[in-house]
Design a protein that fits this description.
275 residues; alpha/beta; Helicase, Ruva Protein, domain 3; 2 domains; two-stranded parallel sheet; 12 helices
């Protein structure tokens, strides 16, 4: 709709997790480096949390791209599974589909696989997204899987990813043993004002190096306030701003345009109330 007007090759503020548009703030860079270290050094249990829309999924994709072929990976996006279903899914992701309905046999099958990986000098990684949805039984199962180890290192690395509710769940007394095994803890926080401005500039330049659009300082400040620095909400609001500016025939995003765009987008920004 507005790409030709502003000189974009594509829309700069889509909400899909396209790693080409991954903006590595110092925080995001630090999180990726810490997680990569934990996996490569076989620390066993790792935890990544953050509010909805802070970039967890995109960071995971960037992490997997960075690890390349050094890891066998199981990525679980829907964790609402029983203990048995969880084990079956992990084995299947590793290309070791095993039909037996015995938890012990499933664990033994997985243990055989990670031992083979270890002998070949390869790592095995299980990533569980939306970890706050895991049942207490399934979380306890992940603790049991962390027992797959040699005398020197963990054979299976487990990265739990989720919203802050996951941290609350892990704080429960019945998960004390699991909590104690988490060696790496990372948290993705919203962007500050300076990083919000850099984030917007980065995505605009990525979408069109010769683009013709400018965000006034006051508009960026208002965008940051309204979005609370959450990247997904920044994307949604910026997209509405570009539509509003296009309809006005303006290539400058003013604070007034931001306010108008916010009013138009409120149904798409459910977490924010008008300050």
């Amino acid at each position: 709709m507005y790409c030709d007007f502003f000189g974009f090759n594509e829309k700069p503020f889509n909400v899909t997790p396209d790693t080409r548009y991954l903006y590595l703030s110092p925080l995001h860079q630090g999180v990726l480096e810490t997680l990569r270290y934990g996996i490569q050094e076989r620390k066993g249990f790792l935890l990544l949390t953050g509010e909805v829309g802070t970039g967890k999924t995109m960071s995971l994709r960037a992490l997997l791209n960075n690890l390349g072929g050094s890891c066998e990976t199981s990525l679980i996006l829907n964790p609402q599974l029983s203990k048995l279903e969880l084990l079956k899914t992990i084995n299947r992701d590793f290309g070791r589909d095993f039909k037996r309905n015995s938890i012990k046999e499933q664990i033994d099958h997985l243990n055989q696989f990670v031992l083979e990986c270890g002998k070949k000098g390869r790592n095995a990684l299980v990533i569980i997204d939306e970890g706050q949805q895991l049942s207490m039984e399934a979380l306890e199962m992940t603790r049991l899987l962390s027992n797959l180890e040699t005398e020197t290192h963990k054979l299976l690395q487990i990265l739990l990813v989720g919203q802050p509710e996951l941290e609350e769940k892990l704080a429960s007394p019945e998960l004390r043993q699991l909590r104690q095994r988490i060696q790496i803890r990372c948290r993705l926080n919203p962007l500050d004002l300076e990083q919000t401005e850099r984030y917007i500039t980065f995505r605009i330049q990525k979408a069109g190096p010769e683009s013709r659009v400018a965000f006034e300082k006051s508009s960026v400040s208002r965008l940051h306030r309204l979005s609370q620095g959450i990247p997904r909400l920044i994307n949604t609001l910026c997209d509405f701003c570009l539509v509003a500016a296009y309809l006005k025939g303006s290539r400058v995003i003013t604070k007034t345009i931001v306010e108008e765009a916010f009013l138009e987008s409120e149904g798409n920004i459910p977490y924010v109330t008008h300050p």
